[in-house]
Every structure is written in structure tokens, then in C-alpha cells.
Amino acid sequence: MLNEFARMSSDDGLVMQLHVGSLRDHNRPLAERFGRDIGGDIPVATEWTRSLGPLLQACGNDPGFTLVLFTLDESTYSRELAPLAGHYPAVSLGCPWWFHDSPSGIDRFLDRVVETAGIQNLAGFVDDARALTALPARHDLWRRRTCGWLARKVDAGLLDEEAAHRIAGELAHGLARRTYRLEG
User: What CATH architecture does domain 2-179 belong to?
Assistant: First the structure.
């Protein structure tokens, strides 16, 4: 079924996303009292490499296909997700989400994936939150943390200021615009 969704996404020019690694509504009494999706989701171990093998064999090199991977399972960032995104042209890594959408969570994500996947294989910051008042704060947090991360790279002599400034723009909006084909 995933392969068929991937084929249809490629045919239609749409971006396919997978949000994996979350056990939804773990606190059942809370969900029963207040409803679904109120934040009772807990990370669970995820296996990407073998599970996505058939889909990536079929579509991972297709220039018309884009697959953005999101997870709450941080243990897979450097072990599986970064190598997959660094290898397959169709794969991009989605930003940290939910409780990993935090100052330390953003730093851990960048530290664990950029060395192998590169910045160009990140999807940038996107937000599907239903809490509209939180959107500006979450985007501001992403911009500040990524700029702080870049500043530490400049301070360590790994980037010059000009490159860091260019990359900051990519992380703030350029990557997301290209990943989701919003240019124009």
C-alpha cells in the first residue's frame, strides 16, 4: 500500500510524509475524558531501514518523488534516518516534532543528522499544529536554535559567517519551500 501511495504521489507531484514512532493516546483515561490527540503520545522504537526497503528500491531514486520522514524515536536519527536521507535522493528528514520540538531536541536532531545527511536533505521547519497561537513561537524557536547551532559551528571554525548566514535562510524557509514545492 505504501508503494502505491508513493507511486501516486510521484504521479501527482505531491510530497509523501510518514510520521512514525508514536504510540498515540497512551493515557487512555485522559483521552476518554478530554478526547483524542491531547498530547498523551509516547515515543516507541521504530525500524526504518528494512521496513522502507521495498518502497525506496521502487521510488527512492525517482526524481519526481519526495518522501519526508518524521519520528519521535530519536534513537533512529543517526543510525537509520540520516544515512537513508544521505543516500536516497527522494528522502528528506522532517524537523523534530511534539516534545522534541524544544531547544535541546532541535540541537540533538541537528547534531545527529547533519553530519551524515547534510543540511540539503532536511525538510526545514513545517508545522501542522492546530494551536494557531503557538505557530509563531514554534517557528521563532526553530530559527533561534538553528542559528545558535550554526553560530557554534562558526565558533568552532567549521563554517564561515557567510555560509552560516546562507544556511540560516535555508533552515528558516528555503528548505521547506523546495521540499514542499512552494517556490514560485
Answer: Alpha-Beta Barrel (3.20)
